[in-house]
Design brief:
Elements (H helix, E strand, L loop, with lengths): L1 H32 L4 E17 L2 E4 L5 E2 L10 E8 L5 E8 L4 H6 L4 E9 L3 E5 L1 E16 L16 H28 L2 E13 L4 H4 L7 E5 L2 E2 L3 H9 L6 E10 L10 E12 L7 E5 L8 E3 H7 L8 E5 L8 E3 H5 L10 E5 L8 E3 H7 L8 E3 L5 E13 L3 H28 L14 H12 L5 H24 L6 H13 L7 H31 L6
Parallel strand pairs: 3-5, 14-15, 16-17, 18-19
Antiparallel strand pairs: 1-8, 2-7, 4-5, 4-6, 6-7, 9-21, 10-11, 10-12, 12-13, 14-20, 16-18
Helix pairs in contact: 1-3, 1-10, 3-9, 3-11, 3-12, 9-11, 10-13
Length: 549
């Protein structure tokens, strides 16, 4: 556990940190291109550990300029210069004093104030390096601080720029995050890595399912789905999940049962004839309760029939240890419980699991079935989006990378798939989908991401496989950041862009900076509250010992 926590923190910073930095660099680059004055680019979040100053802003000085600190030795000192504008719009220093707390905030609002490090001073002007590249103690990403993000009082503020430029600056971060996967995933595909391949074969077909309606039968081999070659189960799962609710075209090679096959021999023979079938993967595949006698076929399935599709199901999953059982499906005697491995005692409630490890809390499926054949590890049969159960025949492991000519179109397709999968995951959360592809935590916060990266780091896998996994995770997170940031949520980029469109709808009449700032403040508080709730769920999952894998 300590090892997972340590590597979780390190890999979390290595994966998420650069994504946020690149996001903020997108804002910085576009802001500078449009002449927006930038005051600070932060690596990490305060408290500040140090920084470097750049830039060369000239401020005129004259006999009326008041120096509140000694003019001699002013070079390389941190100062605050309060200014006024002359008739030509040039800045003239009114006072020069030592930089103080709160000056940065005032400079950010677009007031006539310059803060930074003095580069040089002569009789006519003072040159101030007023752009800080800060390094901060909380290495969770970064930020860029611009002049007048909501205010248009200053000519070089963001708020003073044309609306289209403000939209471009605010959307640039999300755009960079959206582009990253289209660069990262093709590069990942070129890395040689072990990959399981084989013949993806239909084992069972649920009656009334999309696959059943399309005429797919057990033994059929899946060759392609929507033009994609299918070499393993994960490729089929991705091809299906991106087409939820839409027509999907499968190329199938029909299997002919080999009636005289021995146990070790192939159970099906193939003629090489490939046919195309069309089906629509379901958003909400049915989940049926396992019962002794079926009264509603739409929501129930008989035990014997259910075990054709899932041998681990049963009528009950919990056993109570009592003195004299009256129903073996729900109770077990104290004497019999004491002989279990691990043993249990009177009053214990035992959950049926594959392999029991916790004494007094679990009973293995094998022991449970010996006690009562109606027991199982679950009491429902969950269908998938298409209604098939599959396996990989003639399985082998190959170690290879993809050529550059193949990697880029394939990587771009994976990037588009990731966008669709992210959208579908959000949709399933909203509509309450039962699709098993989206099982697991519907949302995770920073702590959950750290747990995930830590588990990947300590997993029993080669370095190449881990690099590919981390890169794929980074691509997914980058797209998630892009989508989240562009949504019209207060305090995020999309929320600020929304106010620009409100301004357009009001024919140029702007919401006051104070009101807009209040909305963003409230939105930020709600976001922090949501992250806190999600983090509590993440911590609870870790305490319970639950894993992502």
């Amino acid at each position: 556990m300590p090892e997972t926590v340590f590597f979780g923190v390190v890999t979390f910073l290595l994966v998420l940190g650069p994504l946020v930095i690149f996001h903020e660099l997108g804002h910085l680059w576009t802001a500078r291109r449009f002449g927006v004055k930038t005051l600070e680019f932060g690596f990490g979040y305060p408290p500040r550990a140090g920084g470097m100053w750049s830039g060369a802003t000239p401020v005129s000085i004259d006999d009326e300029t008041l120096f509140e600190i000694k003019r001699d030795g002013l070079v390389n000192k941190l100062v605050t210069v309060r200014t006024m504008l002359d008739e030509q719009g040039n800045q003239i220093a009114v006072t020069v004093r030592k930089r103080a707390k709160g000056d940065d905030a005032e400079a950010s609002t677009g007031g006539l104030i310059v803060t930074g490090k003095v580069r040089s001073i002569d009789e006519g002007q003072i040159i101030v390096a007023d752009m800080l590249w800060s390094f901060n103690w909380l290495p969770l990403g970064g930020f860029v601080r611009m002049v007048g993000e909501e205010s248009s009082r200053s000519a070089d503020s963001l708020g003073s720029k044309p609306r289209w430029q403000r939209v471009v600056v605010m959307a640039a971060g999300a755009f960079v995050n959206a582009v990253i996967p289209f660069i990262l995933l093709p590069l990942v595909l070129m890395i040689p890595a072990e990959k399981p391949i084989g013949d993806v074969t239909i084992m069972t077909v649920f009656p009334g399912s999309p696959a059943d309606m399309a005429g797919i039968e057990p033994g059929d081999k899946i060759i392609k789905v929507d033009g994609r070659n299918i070499d393993n189960i994960s490729e089929l799962q991705q091809a299906v999940t991106v087409k939820l609710g839409a027509t999907s075209t499968w190329e199938i090679e029909s299997g002919v049962p080999n009636l005289f096959a021995r146990p070790a021999e192939p159970q099906f023979q193939y003629t090489g004839d490939v046919t195309k079938v069309h089906l629509i993967p379901r958003w909400k595949p049915p989940s049926r309760a396992v019962v002794a006698e079926v009264s509603d076929p739409e929501s129930e399935m008989a035990l014997g029939r259910a075990r054709v599709f899932d041998v681990s199901v049963g009528l009950n999953t919990l056993l109570t240890v009592v003195d004299e059982p009256t129903d073996t499906l729900y109770e077990i005697s104290n004497e019999a419980a004491a002989r279990l491995d691990p043993p249990a005692k009177l009053g214990d409630i035992l959950r049926v699991v594959g392999v029991a490890e916790n004494a007094g809390k679990e009973i293995s499926l094998e022991d449970a079935r010996l006690h009562d054949n109606g027991l199982g590890t679950k009491t429902r049969v969950q269908e998938g989006a298409t209604g098939v159960q599959i396996s990989t025949e003639n399985r082998e492991i190959v170690n290879r990378g993809t050529s550059p000519l193949e990697a880029f179109p394939l990587g771009w397709r994976h990037s588009l798939d990731t966008m669709v999968l992210t959208r579908n995951a959000l949709t399933t959360t909203i509509i309450g989908s039962t699709n098993p592809q989206f099982e697991g935590p519907s949302t995770v916060g920073p702590i959950g991401i750290g747990q995930l990266t830590g588990e990947i780091a300590v997993a029993d896998a080669g370095l190449g496989a881990k690099i590919i996994t981390f890169a794929t995770l980074a691509a997914t997170l980058s797209l998630s950041l892009a989508i989240l940031n562009i949504l019209p949520i207060p305090a995020l980029d999309g929320g600020r862009i929304f106010f620009v469109f409100v301004e357009i709808a009001r024919r140029g009449k702007r919401i006051s900076p104070e009101r807009e700032g209040l909305v963003h403040l409230i939105g930020f508080a709600l976001l922090i509250g949501l992250i806190a709730v999600i983090s509590v769920q993440d911590v609870t999952r870790i305490i319970k010992g639950e894993s992502f894998f």
